Amino acid sequence: MDNLDPTGSKRRFSLSVFLGWVFVLGLLIPAAGVGVISLSGLPHAKLDIWAQFTAPALVYSLCLGLVLLLFRRRRPAALAFLVSLVLLFAVMPQWSPRGPRPQKDAPVVRLYSANVHVDNRDVTAMRASIEAARPDIIVLIELGILTPEAREHLLRDYPHRSSSDPAGHGDTVAQAVIASRWPLSPVRSLSNWNQTVVGRVETPVGPVNVVATHFTRPWPYVPSIAQIRQAETLTETLHELDSPVIVAGDFNSTSAARIGRGLRAANDLHPAPAYPGTWPTFLPSVFGITIDQVYASEDLAFVSRRIGVPMGSDHRPVVTEITRAMPASRRPTGPHDRSAESQRPSTPVQKPSE
C-alpha cells in the first residue's frame, strides 16, 4: 500500500501557486507602474519617460489577461484586467481628449503631418502617402536636403511654402516645412536646435497660423531641461500669434505626459485623439505611442484623425480634419469649463526634479 503524504503534496501545491503568483506579478508590476506614474502627473524626468508608454502597456496587460483566462487562471487574469483598467484611465486623456465641438456645416481643412526622417530619400513613397491623404496643408518634419527636382515633385500641387532654417550637420541637415494649396504668408522661423516654422494660411475657415515643430528626444538621450526650454520658446512664439492656431509635429512626448500637459495648459491648446500610435513603425500601431501630435486652439475643433499611408520613415503620418469650433456661448457648460486667461501658467511645464 502506498504511503501517502498529504502534507508534502499540499506543500508542493502551495509552492507552485506561490511561484505562479510571483511570475504573474513580475509581468504585471511594470505595466501597473506605468499607469500609476502617468496618473500621478509627477514632473520627474526619470518617471515621465515611463508615462509615455501607457497605450502599449494597456494592450500588453489586456493580452496577458486574456492568455491567463485561456489557461483558466481566473484570479491572475482578474488582476491583469484590474491593471488594464488603471491604464485605461491613464490613457483616456490621449485617446479621447476634451475639446470644443465642431461647428455644424463649417468648412473643413485637412492637414497631413509627418516626421519623414532625415535619412529618408524615398520621395516616391512620401509623395504616394501625401496623395493618398489628399490634404490641403502639409507639415513635414525632418525633411532632409533634397535636390530641387525631388523637392518640387514631393510638394507638387502645394505651391505656397515656408521652411525652417536648416538644422544639423553634414548628411543629417533637415528642415521643417509647411506647404499649402492656399496662400501662405511666412511668419517666422526659430533659429534654435529644433526645427520650427510658422506660416499664416488663408483657409476657408479664415486665416490660420500653422506651426510646424520638432522637439528633441527626452531624457536620457539629452538633459531633461532641453525639452522644457523648447516648450518655453514655442510658448513665447504662440503667445505672439493671433488665434486660430494649429501646432503639428514630432514632440517626442505624448499629449498626456509632462511636455504635452504643459503645452496644453500654457497655450490653451487641445490635442487630436491619439489612437492608434505613430511610433515606431516596426511595431503594429496598436502597440505604438503617439509622439507625433496635432494641437489646435480653442476656436478650432477636430472632425477626425487617422493614420496615413507609410512613407519610409520610422514614424507614421497623421491626417487630421479641422474646422471652426462651436461658438463659446453655445458650448455646453460644466465643471471642466474654465477661464483660459486667468488660469494660464507663466511657464509651460514644471521644472523636473532629477
The rough form would be described as globular
- Given the structure, what is the number of helices? 9
Largest sheet, described in full?
6 strands, mixed
Placed side by side, the strands forming the largest sheet appear as: 3-4-2-1-12-11
Residue share in β-strands: 15-25%
- pLDDT < 50 stretches: 332-346
Distance between the termini: 68 Å
- SSE string, helix = H, strand = E? HHHHEHEHEEEEEHEHEEEEH
CATH class of the largest domain: Alpha Beta
Class derived from helix and strand content: alpha+beta
What is the count of distinct domains? 2
The name of the CATH architecture of the largest domain is: 4-Layer Sandwich
Description:
This protein is α+β, with helices and mostly antiparallel strands and 354 residues long. The chain has two domains: 15-95, no CATH class; 108-324, Endonuclease/exonuclease/phosphatase (Deoxyribonuclease I, Chain A, 4-Layer Sandwich), CATH 3.60.10.10. 36% of the residues lie in helices and 23% in strands. Helix 1 packs antiparallel against helix 3 (54-70) and helix 5 runs parallel beside helix 6.
Question: Can you give keywords for this protein?
Answer:
6-stranded mixed beta sheet, Deoxyribonuclease I, Chain A, alpha+beta, 354 residues, 9 helices, 36% helix
Task: Summarize this entry quickly.
The protein has 354 residues and is α+β, with helices and mostly antiparallel strands.
Protein topology:
Layout (H helix, E strand, L loop, with lengths): L5 H35 L4 H7 L2 H17 L3 H22 L12 E8 L7 H11 L3 E8 L3 H7 L5 E4 L10 E7 L3 E8 L3 E9 L2 E9 L10 H15 L5 E6 L7 H10 L1 E3 L20 E6 L2 E8 L10 E7 L15 H4 L11
Parallel strand pairs: 1-2, 7-8
Antiparallel strand pairs: 1-12, 2-4, 3-4, 5-6, 6-7, 8-10, 9-10, 11-12
